[in-house]
Amino acid sequence: MTQSIVPPRVDRNARAFADLAVQLHESPTTAETADAVVRYAIPAIACSHAGIALQDASGNITIGTVSSDVPCVLYTIQLQHGDGPMIASIQHGVVLYIPDAAAETRWPAWSRRAVDLGVGSVVHLPLTAGSTTLGVLSLFKQVCHGFSDDDLAIAHVLARHASVAVATAQRREDMSSRVDARKLVGQAMGILMERHDLDADQAFAVLRRYAENNDLKLQQVAEHLVATRHLTEPTQG
Fold first, then answer.
1. Looking at the 3D structure of the chain, how many domains does it have?
2. CATH number, domain at 194?
3. Which residues pair with 53 in a beta bridge?
4. pLDDT on residue 183
5. Who's near 7: CB < 8 A, 6+ residues apart?
6. 28/144 same-domain check
7. Mean pLDDT throughout 25-45?
8. Quick one: which of 29, 84, 173, 209 could link to 78 by a disulfide (CB 3.0–4.6 Å)?
9. pLDDT by residue (tens digit) across 133-160?
10. Rg (CA), the chain
């Protein structure tokens, strides 16, 4: 009988990925999901540092979570200048592996800062859902050419897990936000109905008209009415 032999590292990571999948499924927020991925990446790929940057529907990129100051500093530099390997990975939806940070010529300011921080090699992997790029997973090692083929293979699998988990968490948060907004509007309508003897359609029309006349979102008007019990000037945001 032929017995297949699974390399210890592959077998160990397969079990760890199974545990991670459960943990990501149970993470209620995008922030907790990103944090779980970053914490897993450090030992799984023997990284010095790791981070996740996120992109919203408008294309705005923000720092999601980081394992240390190093990815935070390098993310911040790129966001300030609007350029860098992390931004390029997100904008073009491609994996960017930089084996030697000191030899990188496309982003000289980033390269100098990375070397100053003791970074030798970096890989940025986009987190995607269909044709949408949700962000990027960034992995850092102190040595040049620090990522082996096995490391990169594991990183790709991790990025796929992270993509699904982040997309799921964002959908969950969006649905929760919409439910909260509907509840808030309902409460505001109830106040108007009781105070002015209106029916539901009339109360909603009052809220909508006030929002349009004051260039506000319906949720802003509802939140202000529930908090103050009056339709006076709400704070614009």
1. 2
2. 1.10.10.10
3. 63, 136
4. 78
5. none
6. yes
7. 85
8. 84
9. 999 999 999 999 999 999 999 999 899 9
10. 24
The CATH code of the domain that includes 134 is 3.30.450.40
Tokens of 86: 């992390």
Instruction: Give residue 104's domain range.
Output: 8-174
CB 236 within 8 A of CB 216: yes
The answer as to whether 235 is a domain residue is no
**Contacts for 142 with CB less than 8 Å, ≥ 6 apart:** 48, 118, 119, 120
Most confident among 1-10, 25-34, 45-54, 186-195 (mean pLDDT) = 45-54
The pTM for the full model equals: 0.70
The first and second tokens of residue 191, run together, are 């106040």
Contacts of 169 (CB under 8 A, 6+ apart): 27, 28, 29, 30, 32, 33
The bridge status of strand 121-129 relative to strand 49-55 is unpaired
Distances (CA, A) of 137 to 65, 90, 148, 207, 233: 10, 10, 17, 42, 43
Q: Specify whether 167 is located in the same domain as 185.
A: no
Mean pLDDT of the region 191-196: 85
